[in-house]
Amino acid sequence: MPSFLLLEVLCLFLFAGVMWCSAAVDILFLIDGSHSVGKGSFERSKRFAITVCEALDINLRKVRVGAVQFSSAPRLEFPLDAFSTQQEVKAKIKGMVFKGGRTETGHALKYLLRKGFPGGRNASVPQVLVIVTDGRSQGHVALPAKQLKQRGIAVFAVGVRFPRWEELHTLASEPWEQHILMAEQVEDAANGLFSTLSGSAICTITSPDCKVQPHPCRRKTLETVKELVGHAPCWRGSRGTDAVLAALCPFSSWKRVFLTHPATCHRTICPGPCDSQPCQNGGTCVPEGLDRYHCLCPPAFGGEADCAPKLSLECRVDVLFLLAGSAGTTPEGFLRAKAFVKRFAQAALGEDSRARVGVARYAAELALAVPVGEYQDVPDLVRSLDAVPFGGGGATLTGSALRQAAERGFGSAARTGQDRPRRAVVLMTEARSQDEVAGPARFARARELLLLGVGSEAVRAELEEITGSPERVMVYPGPQDLFSQIPKLHGKLCSRQRPGCQAQSLDLVFMLDASASVGPENFAQMQSFARSCALQFDVNPDVTQIGLVVYGGRVQTAFGLDTHLTHAAVLRAMSQAPYLGGVGSTGMALLHIYDKVMVVHKGARPGVPKAVVVVTGGSGAEDAAVPAQKLRDNGVSVLVVGVGPVLTEALRRLAGPRDSLIHMAAYEDLRHHQDMLMEWICREAKRPVNLCRPSPCLNKGTCVLHDGSYRCECRAGGEGPHCERRTLRGDSPGIRGSSPEPAGDQ
């Protein structure tokens, strides 16, 4: 059968709504589950296969799908005639368990030569084999791969991680550029396949305006290469004294290197709502179907449909610009700094703005040129800036200027707490300081001043030392790039800084008190607090998973760890969490998390740090200390966020022996403690983890740590790497046929 007809069946990867495949065809996934692939890449292989299935019309008369996992030996996950709906196939693939073992690709291919496609229709319909592997077989693959292709089977080799390039070519059908794909690059793989589908009756293009364009691409692999090290004396000839010759012989070593391979890919270009790049100012366009989109905007540009400038400062803030005017500053640099302040004022100070701006110039001494708040009218402020002179002399004493700005830069008003606006010093300099800056910077920050730095690359390190964080520094590569920092400055003035461990792998569950003692209004503030914290993390199955449990008269899982895979979905689900009322039991809610949420078969990942954040009004916490300790003993960190005028002894016991308690008097104060919570989470995420806690073994199997990994020792009647299968051979009739349940560890 022509290979292009078989290729047309795999039109899978194109965006939903662009391609649909409905024909009589058998597709078998052969997925590498060996140790060289690893658990992370195995999960990506499963997601790849699921993505394929989303464009297939799966039923027993049209597209049939099956799966085999291989490592030391092949294992049939499900035959092609096992399921008749797309949902069933996707669910079965998602539930596949990583085997581990050697990479015996050749044995798996021979298994298919002997057995054929399990549950398939033999050669009466096209047969497509999709091999997902890193191409690092420990046996020979050339002969069985050739024999499979001689039977008319179209073979696709899909590389994961850093595959061995030569082996992918050995496995795949020709032409190779159409049969070798990368699971990490789903969209590009789809475009390459689509180049053969334009005349197909098997798959239908729903958008006739799509077209195919070739483009050069490169594939990256990790290979073992032989490298000449040098020459050394060696002896050649017989052992006789007259027949031995001395010579210099080459000797080599083997090393692993990254190699890139040039290739030609085919890109499918379809008209879409994001083609015109409607999102401005660094916004990301996200298509919604074929004619709609929405923009993910940077903080400074939120609130507008296309991230159009919305620079009016909505926060209440006093800003003092501190401009260097010393001998180390050029007149042109000083004029640019003044122009920057003028443009910022014109963009950010609107009629409704609650911000006030002032300007100071410094060299050896600080000169307050425009006091903060003296001009409310923007044109008057701009004219006053024109009159600020360039000193052009003296030493660059930035440390002294910071101390003076903290002492007298914002006037003598004694407003404190909620009555005082946020105060910020924006230091603009291109010259290194000639005095010590660390002490004055600490002095300024101790007075609750937000320090921000704008400067050239030459002063980056000093600005980071002054501000206390790289996130508070804006560096421009050239003079022409200075004004592009205005939106960034706007965002930093009004947004709180992120602690910076968003990329840490973490399973995180929020547990919110929804009892009658809290009330619906305060519960809404808890929801807002949880949403703000969730924004700090990179939510996806490979990094951070987030779950939510609410409790009152009953305990309810609002959503589990593996339910929502994006920020948007998590935030939407948090907003929809129900207020329950009734009398709450914190201990019962913690036991619910222990038994039904923070468990492997509900989405918790082995080897990933785990944390529970309890937000409670304190009522009903009397029974919570023991369940909280039970979670901690199982490798789950527990933090208590207690709200109420009095810190109760029950909350102290619930917090445990470590510093795991944040207390505040009112629910309105939750937003002020987000940074403290994030610091705790980041600290807990770096603690060592135990792969057996919580146990990944089901059906009361025992988890045993072994050589940096783990294995499950199954009780009688249990089988599988995680004891996930029950057999009729069990000694205890009472456990036959029961559903899987988590187990202990040792």
TrEMBL record:
SUPFAM superfamilies: EGF/Laminin, vWA-like
Keywords per UniProt: Disulfide bond, EGF-like domain, Glycoprotein, Repeat, Signal
Name listed for the protein in its UniProt record: von Willebrand factor A domain-containing protein 2 isoform X4
All copies of domain EGF-like, residue ranges: 271-308, 688-724
Paired cysteines (S-S): 714-723
InterPro entries: ECM_Assembly_Org (IPR050525), EGF (IPR000742), EGF-like_Ca-bd_dom (IPR001881), EGF-like_CS (IPR013032), VWF_A (IPR002035), vWFA_dom_sf (IPR036465)
Location of the VWFA domain: 26-197, 318-493, 507-681
Domain of life per record: Eukaryota
PROSITE patterns membership: EGF_1 (PS00022), EGF_3 (PS50026), VWFA (PS50234)
Segment forming the signal sequence: 1-23
Region of interest: Disordered: 725-746
